[in-house]
Design brief:
BirA Bifunctional Protein, domain 2, Rossmann fold, 16 helices, 2 domains, single chain, about 425 residues
Length: about 425
Amino acid sequence: MPEQYRTLQGFRDILPDEQPYWRYFEKIAAEVAETYGYRRIETPTLEETAVFRKTSGEGTDVVEHEMYSFDDRADKEGRRQNIALRPEGTASVVRAYLEHGMFKLPQPVKLYYMSVPIFRHDKPQAGRYREHHQFGCEVLGEGDPAIDAEMIGLLHQVYTRSGLQRLRVHINSIGDQNCRPQYIQKLKEYYRPLLEDCCEDCQVRFVKNPLRLLDCKMPQDQPKIAAAPRITDNLCEPCREHFEAVQRFLEMYQVPYIVDKLIVRGLDYYTRTVFEVISEDNKLALNGGGRYDGLAEILGGQPTPGIGFGLGVERVIQEMKRRGIEPPTEEPTRAFVVYFGKEPKFKDAAIQVCAQLRHAGIKAEMSYGNRSNKAQMKQANNSGAVRAIIIGEDELAGGFVSVKNLQAEGMDTASKQAQVKREELIDYLCQHG
């Protein structure tokens, strides 16, 4: 037997039965984002690897272990460019903001992206695959803490409109270039005598990305994390005032939140406000985000404040299913066209009627493959269609069709079936459903 191929580990097919969840969530997310004044942007799946290497940081898991990067084919001069499949959404949006001169527009520039594929070669986990999809929002050109609260309020509204309750926003501040270096030094002084008892990853983080020491999940390191100094106790005055303002504005948006002093985020470009939304049922993080006031400079732009988040669509849909939330029932097939006759003229007439209905925006199907009359009617009954449109010898000769109500159980034959002129069929279906 020929070899049967399967999806790669960590990748998956999104089958038709699951698509209603995606359409439902995407519709809500887009409506909420646009209500808040955000406009849609799409960036390429491939970027220069340097875009992510510079912004994410050399010591991060994304750069060190998870990024899919490779040399492209050589150009005419024999030069090869190292490119990467997008491992996160923010850097590409900031690159586009700079490349296309959006910094010349009235600020802030508020953007969102929908279900973009994200690639990370990490261990597949619940609702997170090596290729997963993100809905995200980015605001560039404004450092006002009101923007931080607005974005978190937007995110919370997306969840509540999707039917997800019992969620809580976890927020923290990780300071900026004025106060974070001193805090990192204090954190390293605390960890230095404990380092031999830390896991191997934390020994690397101590050198490359000390803040990530607080993000370790290994049981042996939890007591060290619990006793570690907190950055919120070491903020400079502007960062402290910014964080207090964010909390005050969140109260105005009626967003339930807690200050979680252990949230640090995994990428180097974050400053000040960082946040996650976590399910209170299973402690699953549905998204992550934060402020990144130095990112544009890393990519060659002028100092530009920014903030954003990325939400894993698969993880949110998984949570919706776990809680029994179902998308609205989609419109059924309105008409199923059948033809009773083996001559080509009968099938031709069925195709013409089906095309006529579809051009009018009426969801229609028909039978294929020259099935028998009985088989076609069985197919029509099993299709979920509201009505069968029947074309036989009499119908073809008389220029009409027979319309049978397939949903009218218990009705007499006269009420269930009507003869309708071909040119009046669309009006009939619009009037009678």
